[in-house]
Structure formats: structure tokens, C-alpha cells
């Protein structure tokens, strides 16, 4: 019997997910704005058979409110500028041929027609390898760039996101696969019976359609989702092909996995229709001791005040700087953004009885994701355990800096996973759906016509 | 003395600008949705030293209101779907190295932060070859995809466009060129004195900034503009590096050229700061007779009712189908969109005493642009005359179908222009600004600092 296979995403967190990673002697600090590096990393990921390249996104300089208030610590936080993800996907499509290309785009500050069109186009350019990570905007800085004084309320953002998804998915069905005849003899360009107006009239959107892009090579782009709050889980169960999540504990991860998959049935979906992929940050050594030394070396590059500034992104509502560094982590008021990440941080702090500084340094190192410090065998053991215990379908690999940790995971851990028979040795197909083992969704109108014909 | 050099744009109007062009036996009708063709055409354009690839854009299926009303003639109009232009630019940047990459994006249904970011990113990906064609949306179909029942008023669209440009240009100055230090020793990532908040508070937009993309390789993307109405000309004089326009008559083109350039001074700009490029559609034969036969062959592929449906896009407010085909072109009520194109059509009809059908067939053939039917020498004569008589700085080459007419112009007319010494034989530089002969704009804050230091 074939073993369950794990999926791997390369999470491109340039110049590094660890906030001091770029200061490492091996780090290329310029990876944030140099597309040549983005492409080399994508090609490396494809060479090592990752399922996807994945881009997070923020439509603001994170921490700019604090900068505006004069907090100079922020000038030492590295993730300030980067390239816009959808443009990167399109460009990467040309330099790669198999890997999936997934980017985040917010439902809070975009229009669904524009998003449906752009991702659909990238699916055409890449011959069916595109994915859209549907999010609601998480930080207050973003609102200020889009005509708002304060951030949109969490519940309202999710309400808009659900309707946004319905519009995008509807627009993706505007044209049936065989709608375009391009018949030179008759002069008929398309079959009007296979063109469909959406005529959506909802609370947030009025969108007539049709989309001005034809049906894509994999039916429609893959949809990923990254929210882990209650409405986030519900939206994922309803809409997502892939779920990215931050999980640090096996039991909590198993609970999340079962909960999200358990919600799919009421939307007419199966457990296999959704792939759950927690993030992991590997720190790899030939021995456990060498790995720990590497991690300690990184942490030594991180000043305490920078760590605290990084934590402050998740602690709105209290002045984190006014608490004693070596005292307990203070309680936080209920958040309007990044709710689930905030809860994860508090749970970690309480469970491990951590000081404020310890929490800050941990968040700066991994942004709430699981850090795996050890040998390739140890890391493979951990991934295999989570896979076999139904805590994950795969993992998003997040690197502390580039390119060395990414090379290490690719050349040391992936071969170990392959030896164990839990990771591919060649791509299964050419489209992202084929490689992830996802069904090609049928156009709703084609399905209706088929159902009618069968009657 | 070196002769004045003309600029050439390749206007990618897939599957063909002539509405029946795709029916020609030589035409590849699938060029509209096949990115492989987009890339081949871009590479061909670069091989023949064009300044730019240029994409028009519409955020709707044009004519979908008529389709919704049951007008089946529209199923024979070919320009229904195509790939989203900015994704295409990003992808083309990877397969080319010198040609400029220019795409249209509307100010009516986008947010300035998103546009500033995307074009700035493509400028990074292409190492300084990107341009943004700033337009206001032209057709009613677009409004229906963006929450509106009727199209935004012409004056209001221009008012928004002007403010949109100010925000985008402001965001492009968020970071001075040397803002990022990435200093591993000190741990300082950027120089806060070289980061700037925009803090824009206007009628249409409130945008704080800064943009989360650093200054681009050519300072900022080139800005093109395509409106020719009164507010369109004013906006162009104020904002545009390049102006695309439809001009069919030498005298009118000279008037437009002098008028737009004449308006630049009050914005502190010079005549050379703006390049004016009318569209031309070439039909090339070895003899004048052969060229005319080719044109007649294309026109024979165009049914009268399809021609009329094409004209109907420009005749809102009257039922064009109720007028006699062979009677005079009826007068039109004042338009809310494509104002200058509509005026061009009416002027042409009156000047040449054309019937409704003749006007419809002419519009279907060239969408109001100038058709040049003749030998390579004849076409070169015409281009040279317009260049020397200050009617144009260059031309946007628009093809009836692909790829043959594009190959013909590239291999027959361009060498003739080169023999005459009015077109380059090698690219002057690597960035679009270098090739167009445009200055690199200085960051406003860098300029202020320099001015202060000089005092």
C-alpha cells in the first residue's frame, strides 16, 4: 500500500522570517527587492519538487504607525518592502514549469472582478498552476492606505470576504470550457449559450459579469485560506482547497485538522477536498547540538528592543513597552486582527510560563510558527508523525533567511522524506490540482446541463 | 546632424484590431487567450527594436449589455476575452531584456495604492522597463462589474483620475533611492530620514503611505495617457510621459501635437518631456494595388451587421440600427464616454460625406485609427512626413490580425525607416526612459534636500 504523501510549500518570506535572520553572515539581505532571487528560489523549489511557492502579503509598511509615532526601533525590522506577489507569480510562471504559484490577495481592499481576472490570467499564463490565498487584511496600517481612519471590524471583514469569494467563484464560471468556437467560416466567435452573466446583487457587491477571461486550464485557480479564528475556519471549510495555519503543538494541530475537515461536509465537500498545511521553520544541523548552536547564533543577532517591537504588532490595546521584560506576559484585550495568532501566542506563553521577553524573542524568531531545531532525521520524524497522526497534510517551509536554510531543507530533509516514501520523487502532473490531488471543479452551468441531459 | 528619431510601439490588439481580421486564412485566432503568443509577439517586437509593447484594457466584456439584451450579432465580435495586462507585463519581463512594457489600468475602478505598487513591482522585475497607461474607464459595461448601475460621469472620472495620479506619483516617492542600508553590523535596515509618509487627504482618497516597494530602477514607471478630450489633454500635459492618440488627418494631428505640448509649460515641463504617438494600422503590399486588394479581402470578411454592432459601441443614446444603412451618418447626442473617439468618427463622416454603413465598416476596420494601405516605401513616407511636420514623435503599430501583418511591418517597413536614418538600429539603453529619451525624475525629497544643501 502506498503511504500517505505529504505536501510541501516553499513560503518565500524574504529577506527572512527570523527578524534578525538577514544579519547572519550567510544571508543575502537584498532578497526582498531583487526579483532575480525570487526566481532562483522558485526554480530551486521546483528542482526539489515542492508543491507550491507561497507569498504572504500586506498592503502597507507593517509598523508604519509606530514609525510615524517616532519609534526608531522599527528601522531595525527587516520586512518593510517587497515585491507585489501577483506580479511575481506571473513572472515566475515563465521561469518554471511544474511548481504551483500561490499568492495572497486581500478581500478587504480589492474588488472581486479585478481579483478573479488577475488570478485567472495567471492560471492561463502558468498552464494551470495558480492559487489565490484569500485573506482579510490583518493590520491597522493597511486601512490608512485605503481611505479609512480605523481598521474594518473583524466580523465585517469576514462577511465581506465570504461574499467576495462567492463573486469570484461565480465569475470563474462565466464561460464554459468549450465556449469559444473561433469559427472562421461562419464568423461566429463564441457560443452565447456557454456565456453566463453572474448578476450578483449582495450586501457588499453588485457584479454583473461575465468575466473577460475564459475558463482556465485547471478549471479555476486553487483557493487557499489562512485564517484560523472561528469565522476563518468556517470560511476555509466552505471555500478553501488548501489551508495554511500556524500550529506549534501536536494535539492542537490535530484538533484544528479534525475541526476544519469536519466542517466541510455541510458544504457538500469531502475531507480530501481540503489540504491542511501548518508552517514550520527548520534549523538544521549535522547533530542536535550543532542545530541548537545555529539557533542560538540567530537569536544572538536579535536585540531585545527589536524583539519587543515585533511582538508589539500583536499586542494592540496595551503598551507592551511599559511592562517588565522579565515579568510574566501580560493579558491582552480582545483583538480586531490576527485574532488566532494572538491566541496562539498567549497559549504558548501560559503553557510554558514564559516571560515577556521570552515571548517577544520567540515571536521574532518564527512569527508564531513551529520551529524545528535538529538533524534532518529528527525533522523528518516530526513531519512524519504529524502526517501520520492526522495533524497535517503537509507543511509550508518558512526560512529564517535566504538562501542557505532553504538549501539545507531541500537537500537534507527532502531526500530523507523521500527515503521514507512520504514525499514524491517526481511531479504527479502538470497542474497544481494534479500535484495536490484535488479534483478539477466542474463549471456550474456545464454540470447543470449534464444533469438535465441525464434526466 | 542626426535626424529626429521616431518611436515605435507594438500595440498588442489580439486576436486583431480589425473585427474580422481573425477570419483571415493567415490569422491565428487563438492569440487572445494563449500567453505563448503574447510572449512570441513581445520577443519579435524586441528583435525589431520597438520601444514598447502596449496593452489596452477594459474591465468588462465589451458589448455585454447588448448581449444581455439579446443581440446575437455580438457573438461575432472577436475581442471578448483576453489576458489581464499587468500579469502579462510581469511575465513578459522575464522573456525580454530591452523592450518597454506598458499596460493600461483604469483609475475608475482601482485603488491608487494597489496600482502604485503593482507597476512599481513590474518596474523592478523588468529592471526599469515598465509603463502605466492611465485611463478613465470608457464603457458602461465596466460600471456594472463594480457595484454601479450607470457609468461614472465624464467630468467626475477625470477629477478622480487627476487625484489618483497625484497619489500614485506621491507613493512612488515614498523611499529615496538610497533609503535601504541593510547594515548587518549595526542591525539598521533602513534610514528613516529617507522614508516619507504621503499623508494625502483629498476629495476621493485618503492615503497615508509609505508604499511598501522601494524606488525603482528608472526612478519610477513611465506614465502614458490616452484621452484626447479637453480634460484628457490637460491631464496628459500634466502627467504623461507618452500620449497615445487616434489621429487620421495630418492637420488635426499637428494641432493635437502642438496643443498638448503647449500645455506642458505651466506644469514646469518641457516639450521633450512628452512623446506623442498616434496609432496606425498598416496593410502592406509589394505594390499599392496588392495592398488595396489585401484591405478589400479583409473588408469582405466583415458582415454589415457586425460592422454596425461595432459602431454601436460608440453611439449610445440613439438606436443606430433604426437608421437607413445607406443614408447619412446620424448626429449623436453628447457622450459620457470615449468622447474624443466619437468626435473623430463624426468629423470623418462629415468630411468625407460617408453613409452610416461606410462609417460602420471604417470603425470596424480600425477603431478610429489611421489605416495606411500601401507599399513599405509609401508607409515610411507617411510616417516620416508626420514625424518631420511635428504631427507625431512616433507611432503605435496596430495590427488587423496576428502574426503576419506584424511580421510584415517589422521586416518591411522598419528596415526602410532605418535606411532613412529615422529609426534606431540598436537600443540606446536598458531602461524604457533611456530608450524613449526621457529624464529620470528625481525623488521630490531628494531634490528638496539637494536644494537645501546648495543654499
UniProtKB/TrEMBL annotation, chains A, B:
Residues 28-388 form the Luciferase-like domain. InterPro entries: Diverse_substr_monoxygenases (IPR051260), Luciferase-like_dom (IPR011251), Luciferase-like_sf (IPR036661), NTA_MOA (IPR016215). It holds the Pfam family Bac_luciferase. CDD domains: Nitrilotriacetate_monoxgenase. Coiled coil: none annotated. GO terms for molecular function: monooxygenase activity; oxidoreductase activity, acting on paired donors, with incorporation or reduction of molecular oxygen. FMN binds at residues 57, 104, 154, 158, 228-229. Signal peptide: none annotated. Keywords: Flavoprotein, FMN, Monooxygenase, Oxidoreductase. The keyword Flavoprotein applies. Belongs to the NtaA/SnaA/DszA monooxygenase family. This is Monooxygenase.
Amino acid at each position: 500500500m502506498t503511504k500517505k504523501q505529504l505536501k510541501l510549500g516553499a513560503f518565500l518570506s524574504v529577506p527572512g522570517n527570523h527578524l534578525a535572520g538577514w544579519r547572519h553572515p550567510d544571508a543575502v539581505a537584498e532578497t526582498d527587492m531583487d526579483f532575480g532571487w525570487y526566481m532562483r528560489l522558485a526554480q530551486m523549489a521546483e528542482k526539489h519538487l515542492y508543491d507550491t511557492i507561497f507569498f504572504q502579503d500586506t498592503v502597507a509598511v507593517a509598523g508604519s504607525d509606530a514609525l510615524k509615532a517616532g519609534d526608531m526601533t522599527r528601522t531595525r525590522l527587516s520586512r518593510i518592502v517587497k515585491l507585489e506577489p501577483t506580479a511575481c507569480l506571473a513572472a515566475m510562471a515563465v521561469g518554471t514549469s511544474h511548481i504551483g504559484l500561490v499568492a495572497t490577495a486581500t478581500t478587504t481592499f480589492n474588488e472581486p472582478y479585478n481579483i478573479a481576472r488577475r488570478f485567472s490570467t495567471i492560471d492561463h499564463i502558468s498552464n494551470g498552476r495558480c492559487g489565490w490565498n484569500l485573506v482579510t487584511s490583518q493590520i491597522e496600517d493597511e486601512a490608512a492606505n485605503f481611505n479609512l481612519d480605523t481598521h474594518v471590524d473583524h466580523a465585517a471583514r469576514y462577511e465581506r470576504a465570504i461574499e467576495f469569494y462567492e463573486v469570484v467563484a461565480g465569475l470563474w464560471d462565466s464561460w464554459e470550457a468549450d465556449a469559444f468556437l473561433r469559427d472562421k467560416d461562419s464568423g461566429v466567435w463564441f457560443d452565447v449559450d456557454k456565456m453566463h452573466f453572474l448578476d450578483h446583487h449582495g450586501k457588499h457587491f453588485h457584479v454583473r459579469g461575465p468575466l473577460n477571461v475564459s475558463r482556465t486550464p485547471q478549471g479555476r485557480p486553487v483557493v487557499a485560506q489562512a485564517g484560523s479564528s472561528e469565522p476563518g475556519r468556517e470560511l476555509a471549510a466552505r471555500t478553501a482547497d488548501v489551508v495554511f495555519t500556524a500550529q506549534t503543538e501536536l494535539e492542537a494541530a490535530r484538533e484544528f485538522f479534525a475541526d476544519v475537515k469536519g466542517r466541510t461536509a455541510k458544504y457538500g465537500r469531502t475531507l480530501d477536498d481540503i489540504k491542511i498545511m501548518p508552517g514550520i521553520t527548520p534549523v538544521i544541523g549535522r547533530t542536535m547540538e550543532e542545530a541548537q548552536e545555529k539557533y542560538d547564533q540567530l537569536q544572538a543577532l536579535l536585540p531585545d528592543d527589536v524583539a519587543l517591537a515585533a511582538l508589539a504588532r500583536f499586542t494592540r490595546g496595551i503598551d507592551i513597552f511599559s511592562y517588565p521584560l522579565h515579568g510574566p506576559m501580560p493579558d491582552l484585550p480582545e483583538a480586531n486582527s490576527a485574532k488566532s495568532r494572538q491566541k496562539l501566542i498567549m497559549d504558548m506563553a501560559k503553557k510554558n510560563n514564559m516571560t515577556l521577553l521570552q515571548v517577544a524573542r520567540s515571536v521574532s524568531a518564527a512569527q508564531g510558527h513551529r520551529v524545528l531545531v535538529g538533524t534532518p532525521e529528527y525533522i523528518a520524524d516530526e513531519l512524519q508523525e504529524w502526517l501520520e497522526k492526522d495533524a497535517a497534510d503537509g507543511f509550508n517551509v518558512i526560512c529564517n533567511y535566504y538562501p542557505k536554510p532553504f538549501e539545507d531543507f531541500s537537500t537534507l530533509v527532502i531526500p530523507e522524506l523521500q527515503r521514507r516514501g512520504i514525499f514524491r520523487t517526481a511531479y504527479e502532473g502538470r497542474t497544481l490540482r494534479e500535484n495536490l490531488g484535488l479534483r478539477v471543479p466542474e463549471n456550474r452551468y456545464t454540470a447543470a446541463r449534464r444533469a438535465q441531459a441525464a434526466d
